[in-house]
Write a structure and sequence with these properties.
The complex is a heterodimer of chains A (205) and B (386). Chain A is 63% helix and 0% strand. Chain A is an all-alpha fold and 205 residues long. Chain A folds into 2 domains: 1-107, RNA polymerase sigma factor, region 2, helix turn helix motif (Rna Polymerase Sigma Factor, Chain: A); 127-205, Arc Repressor Mutant, subunit A, CATH 1.10.10. In chain A, helix 1 packs across helix 2 (29-51), helix 2 crosses helix 4 (81-98) and helix 3 packs across helix 4 (81-98). Chain B is mostly helical. Chain B has 3 domains: 3-52, no CATH class; 60-164, no CATH class; 188-385, no CATH class. Classes of the chains: A mainly alpha (205), B mainly alpha (386).
Chain lengths: 205, 386
């Protein structure tokens, strides 16, 4: 999953990004295309981990870049561009997941191979028995598949803080800024999300 | 440290968010608390397990197309927004402004056509409306309907007026240009105009000198106008007319006025030589119209004076006989009779005409002595007494 989440340091300022943003503000679409090309995997990866659906993640990733393009004038040039794009994608994903009438798409499109998430949570009777050693159980691929299924049962907010912490490697303050919540709320949500996952993955403990 | 407090510290430790003091405290608790240690292991396992979750990587072609898809959407959505903005103004104005404008213009045109048709020929339209069929132009029908009420009334009024007094309706038409007779004086035309003016201003209640054939005043004026317009009456026909017995003036009398002679006696004579009706008609052009107009201006009894705008001496005598008991009409008749007699004497001075003129003038002066026209009669009578 690392290829989809090339986490960057929140404080790193990319001079190249700054130049591209300035050019894109002036109407240089090639500069903005280069920005898209640089961050498309990360933005798409956030959306996919949040929604677990390729088609939805594709739409959300495109929407995130379009919103970024329209908001370039409001972007602070001294800040890193990646977290700003991730923030947009996460919030779009939360909005999508919280929409009551959201469509129930297939997890993967026809041209995409079947992923592990559904298989992890499916009650396949033919699956291998759990590892008897707890340490090994938690380190098994079986646990990873179960975790993928359990993550879908979290609320969007809990899923977001966990994603930003675990996958994006953001600090509490950065998560708080991304989601526009307090640092204490970030800690509280992380604790509750993990507690929920623990209950969901009780068999692997 | 209780587990409730330690569990938060343990999570901070797992997330790398503890300061050195918290880290030492948390590690000390983990060594002694199995439950918190298990939670710490679970949190760490989540991170490692999350890294193991492999989400399918889209093909490379997807990433190659993705930037162009984003740019295409940006361009398309920008164009759609511009179209929506322009479409907003089009939706705002097109249906209301242009459609309403077209409807208003069409309605105005239809109403204008209807009004024009009614004004041009209201009676015809009224007839048409009464016989209106489905074949009538649909475009005119709705426009004519609302205008019909007002114009029907007008048309009906015009029709009634024409029925009551055809001459009034005729007077409203452009005045016919009457050619003066070759022998008539040039002032005949303005006198005729004066007659029209007097006729138009004449009240319906005004009496008029009528003959015994129950000529009403409108017919009287009509004949006067008709005679004035019938200027092509041949001299032969005039000469064949019977000679008036009272005036005794022969038909051989020339119609051409002498330079020193007033044209009035000749016209009066002409009227008398033709017939009594013809005399009435030709008398319209008499110069006494000017006197009558001046009398009007002097405040004479308007209706009677206007009504007697024309007439021969005989007519005035008849009218006098019929209206002798009515003061204003009697004075007007006496004035006209005296004037006619004086003019007759001027035209043919002899004892008979002088006596008649003197008698008639005295009769008028007996009932009216302090007016301008009385002074006129008095001045004209004075030479006859000498």
């Amino acid at each position: 999953m690392g290829s989809l989440a090339p986490a960057q340091n929140w404080e790193s300022v990319n001079a190249v990004d700054r130049d591209l943003v300035v050019r894109a503000r002036g109407g240089d679409q090639d500069a903005f295309a280069e920005i898209v090309h640089s961050y498309q995997r990360r933005v798409y990866g956030v959306a996919l981990r949040m929604t677990r659906r390729h088609e939805v993640a594709d739409d959300i990733a495109q929407d995130a870049f379009i919103r970024a393009y329209r908001s370039l004038d409001r972007f602070e040039l001294g800040r890193p561009l990646g977290p700003w794009l991730v923030k947009i994608a996460v919030n779009l994903s939360i909005n999508y997941l919280k929409a009551p009438a959201r469509r129930e798409h297939a997890l993967y499109s026809e041209d995409m191979p079947e992923g592990p998430a559904e298989a992890a949570l499916s009650s396949d009777p033919s699956r291998e028995p759990l590892e008897s050693n707890p340490v090994r159980r938690l380190a098994s691929s079986e646990f990873a598949r179960a975790l993928a299924g359990a993550l879908e049962k979290l609320t969007p907010e809990h899923r977001a803080v966990l994603l930003l912490k675990v996958d994006e490697g953001l600090r509490y303050d950065e998560i708080a800024e991304t989601l526009s919540i307090s640092r204490g709320t970030v800690m509280s949500r992380l604790f509750r999300a993990r507690a929920h996952l623990k209950s969901l993955l009780e068999d692997y403990r | 440290m209780t587990c409730d407090k330690a569990i938060r510290l343990v999570e901070k430790l797992a997330d790398g968010e503890t300061n050195p003091g918290e880290r030492a405290e948390a590690e000390m608790h983990l060594e002694t608390c199995k439950e918190c240690n298990s939670h710490y292991q679970f949190v760490r396992a989540l991170e490692s397990a999350s890294e193991k979750i492999e989400l399918p990587e889209p093909p490379e072609a997807y990433w190659q197309r993705f930037p162009s898809k984003v740019l295409t959407r940006i361009e398309r959505e920008g164009r759609e927004e511009r179209e929506e903005q322009s479409g907003f103004w089009q939706k705002l104005f097109t249906p209301w402004m242009f459609r309403f404008g077209a409807a208003a213009a069409t309605l105005t045109l239809v109403i204008a056509v209807g009004v024009s048709v009614y004004r041009d020929d209201p009676r015809q339209l009224e007839s048409e409306s009464s016989e209106m069929s489905e074949a009538i132009d649909v475009a005119q029908a709705p426009a004519a309907a609302p205008g019909k009420t007002a114009f029907d009334e007008k048309a009906a009024g015009s029709e009634d007026t024409a029925q009551r007094d055809p001459e009034e309706a005729r007077a409203s038409a452009p005045p016919a240009v009457a050619r003066p007779p070759a022998s008539a004086p040039a002032r005949d035309v303005p006198l005729r105009s004066e007659s029209n003016k007097l006729r138009n201003a004449r009240p319906k209640s005004s009496p008029a000198p009528v003959a015994g054939d129950e000529l009403d005043e409108s017919r009287f004026v009509e004949r006067a106008i008709g005679t004035a317009e019938r200027d092509d009456v041949s001299d032969e026909s005039l000469q064949e007319a019977p000679e008036p017995e009272r005036l005794g003036r022969g038909s051989a009398r020339s119609r051409e006025p002498s330079p020193s002679e007033s044209t009035f006696p000749e016209e009066l004579e002409l009227a008398d030589t033709v017939s009594e009706d013809s005399a009435r008609q030709h008398s319209v052009a008499e110069p006494q119209q000017a006197v009558r107009a001046s009398s009007l201006a002097a405040g004479e009894a308007g209706s009677a004076v206007l009504a007697s705008a024309s007439g021969s001496c005989a007519e005035w005598r008849r009218y006098l006989a019929e209206n002798d008991d009515q003061a204003s009409e009697a004075r007007e008749a006496h004035y006209q009779v005296a004037l006619c007699s004086l003019r007759s004497y001027d035209a043919e001075p002899n004892d008979d005409t002088r006596d008649e003129a003197t008698r008639d003038a005295d009769a008028f002066l007996a009932i009216e002595s302090d007016t301008e026209r009385a002074e006129e009669i008095r001045l004209r009578l004075e030479p006859l007494r000498q």
